[in-house]
Amino acid sequence: MTEPVLTIKDLSVVLSRDGRANRVLDGISFDVAPGEIIALVGESGSGKSTIGLTLQGLLPKESEPKISGSVLLDGVEIVGAKPGVLRAARRQLVRAVSQDPMGSLNPTMTIGRQMRESGVGDIVDWLGRTGLPDPERIADSFPHRLSGGQRQRVLIAMSMMTGPKLLIADEPTTALDVTIQAQILDLLRKLAREQQTAILFVTHDLSVAASLADRVLVLYAGRVAEIGGVRDVIRNPAHPYSAGLLSARFDFTSDRLRPLPTLPVERSRPRDATNACAYAHRCPIVQEDCTTIRPALRTVGNHSGAAACLHAEQTPAATDTSRTRPLWPESVVQRSAVALELFQISKGFATGAKNFWGVRAPRPVLKSVDLTIRQGECVALVGESGSGKSTILRIAAGLLKPDSGDVSRVDKIAPQVVFQDAVAALTPWLSVGEQIGERLRPLGLSAEESRRRVAEAMELVGLDVGLMQALPSELSGGQCQRAVVARAVVVPPKLLLCDEPISAMDVSLAATTLNLLGDLRRRFGMAMLFVTHDLAAARIIADRIAVLQHGELVEDGDPDALIAAPKAAYTRALIAAMPSLHTELAQ
Amino acid sequence: MTDIAVVPARHRFNWANFFRRVGWLETVGIAGVLLITLVALFAPWLTPFDPQLRVDAAYLPPTMAHWFGTDEIGRDLFSRVILGVQYTWLPGLGVIVFSLVFGSIIGLVAGAAGGRIDMVIQRVIELFLVLPSTLIALAVVAALGPGLFNTMIAIAIFWWPWYARISRDEIRRLQTRPHVEAARVAGVRGPRLLLRYLLPGAIPSLLVAATLDVANIIMTMSLMSFLGLGQPAPAPELGAMTSRALDSLTVYWWLPILPAVVIFFMCLLANLAGDGIRAALRGA
């Protein structure tokens, strides 16, 4: 057998935040063979990014990292190595591609100059190999002239031209449109095969992992829950957590008539789980010994890998829960009453080049859009970045004025918005309860009465009422999103506008959020505009999907009919680009 | 980075956490600023000798009896420095507090109103900023007559526009932030939006600017004293003491050096306290 390019043995990392020490990685061991692609999968906080940072020696100093165990990178020990050794490793052995390519490129240098600094090689040839059209022009341009997908290709070219032994790709496609994502994944796979470069691919998306990786490593709470061949893990998950992740994954075949299956919500993690399974408090098949014995990785009968579960034989198959959940109640769409009507809306932004008089030419973003949402109806607006879908939402919310056209909303209560970045949508210095209660102020309720209403709203969205006095920084990302939703529904509006609320979430959180929104809109008979680039999510939540391309609605129809028989070429491309577990496995 | 779900404890104040977040050097700064303020307030009761009277021979170097030595007419330098802290620190603090409050309010109004009001206020601010500040101060003191209070007025007149500008820019920046937009969507309007959602976001920058300005204010006040426009000569103002005794640096080093060292520590502690306050606000 060939020598592994990376050997990690019993790696533990402790990071501190505000003086509290957290064991972020806890006894991780695995090997990576040359040219092998391993996907690191887990929810946020599972420590998957920390592995990549540890390999590069880039853990933030201010969190006082304490590393133990061993990391052998091509025979060189990284843990406890001198800065010089780490630098040499970063230069020759490991390269990284991050989620935010703009942050990794120097905005003051042309692409060509940056690549020359990065290593020797034929720059134009390498840019061409990543599929960039007109590589000479790209080499001469500055990063801000390129699109997100182009920047990511540049970063990949820059990383691969030095012939690294290991590439760490930390969610490189999360910020990209699905069509671009599929191309980037193909590119990574092709280059890894050509150069025998091993890839550690960090992702929260199991279907992305399935379409790319040879093996998958499921992390939970800083421990390896399961490791094994992609097919084995996806077909026969041995750890209940992997099984849960798989069943929470939704695609075009998920049942949209009932709530999605989800993992139990993480409310708290036991501080000290040294002698217990870290997953015990969420596990559906938990037994007495789970809280007293820490399970070691062991081979499990039904696949080639290993899982850290004492009762792996009882792990439920991923798909057998679907029929037990109750159906959603009947649709409450009122055919006659309109919640939002956009009539021939157009909007341009002055972002073009300055003309002779110093006036910028407006670049049209929306060209005469007509969209009607009936009361109680949920319309999903799908399109890639730059198609103008967020502009429509902002116009509907009254945050932007259209250049021409009419907006009519028939409601006394202003439409509410659920934002993409829930953490940024909460004011950091005000308590969660105060911000939720903000919408009750015009009603002139007594302090006691408002407190009760806020508590009710928090309970409704599944947010611990004890968090009323907490500041947003004390909440996890999922809890912040619940708080934002609670603020939106504490006085239920007739129209709820959701701006990509799940695009930055991991699988189980996204499914939970879709269920929550689906429940609330039926409960209050709210109409909903759901802006997303994820067709699968759109299909699950919406009664109708509208597809937007270059500021024009190109298609509009019933979700299943639209996905089964898309009319517009653009819709077909979107559907083809969606990674799906089942189609990947069928290949 | 990854975020880890923790159950937040109920609101509690924990000194250990405070020190860790703020840093011990910054904590020393905050304590030092409080101490200086106390010394400044109670200076008349803290002086071992009468700072205005001859108590010993002239030009005595520092001894056990006179910690900072004596000056050219035999006054106890330590007592004069203690009183000097009062004469320098309190007016400096006064000017800063006035500029901070007045400037932030003007900036808040400009930033929140936008449009024409913002334009007019900005031009007024620029008018104050382009005027030669020292000349204006001289003119004000010449018109009102020298004295502590008039010096403060003269300095404050050209000090507040800086804060108005910082405050205005911070408010403009905050207004495009998602959380302020979210508050607008939730129906927050008027003074409540200004005071609860916008102003607290501008305070950290303003406080940092203010603490860095303590040194500048002290220097400006010394300059005024040096030109004879500060407090009248016998008043022990630290900057004036330093500048007047500068000639004798090579012979009687303690006369300019020791008051200057006290000024140095006042500025240093103020800057450290500023860093500390910023860290404490960030984590609060």
Spell out the blueprint of helices and strands.
The complex is a heterodimer of chains A (587) and B (284).
Chain A: E1 6-17, E2 20-32, E3 37-41, H1 48-56, E4 66-73, E5 76-77, H2 83-92, E6 94-97, H3 101-104, H4 111-118, H5 123-129, H6 135-140, H7 148-160, E7 166-170, H8 178-195, E8 198-203, H9 206-212, E9 215-220, E10 223-229, H10 230-235, H11 240-248, E11 298-299, E12 306-307, E13 334-354, E14 360-375, E15 378-382, H12 389-397, E16 404-409, E17 416-418, H13 432-437, H14 447-460, H15 477-489, E18 495-499, H16 507-524, E19 527-532, H17 535-541, E20 544-549, E21 552-557, H18 559-564, H19 569-577, H20 581-586
Parallel strand pairs in A: 3-8, 3-9, 6-7, 7-8, 15-19, 15-20, 17-18, 18-19
Antiparallel strand pairs in A: 1-2, 1-4, 4-5, 9-10, 10-12, 11-12, 13-14, 13-16, 20-21
Helix pairs in contact in A: 5-7, 7-8, 8-19, 14-15, 15-16
Chain B: H1 15-22, H2 24-41, H3 43-46, H4 77-113, H5 115-130, H6 133-144, H7 148-157, H8 160-175, H9 178-185, H10 190-226, H11 238-244, H12 254-283
Radius of gyration of chain A: 25 Å
**What string gives the helices and strands of chain B in order?**
HHHHHHHHHHHH
CATH-defined superfamily of chain B: MetI-like
Q: Hey, which two chains have the biggest interface?
A: A-B, 49 and 33 residues
Structural class of chain A: alpha/beta
Report the biggest beta sheet of chain A as strand number plus sense, adding barrel if it closes.
8 strands, mixed
CATH hierarchy class name of the largest domain in chain A = Alpha Beta
Give the overall average pLDDT of chain A. Answer: 84
The residue-averaged pLDDT of chain B reads 83
Shape of chain B: globular
User: In the CATH hierarchy, what is the architecture of chain B at level 2?
Assistant: Orthogonal Bundle
Helix content of chain A: 25-40%
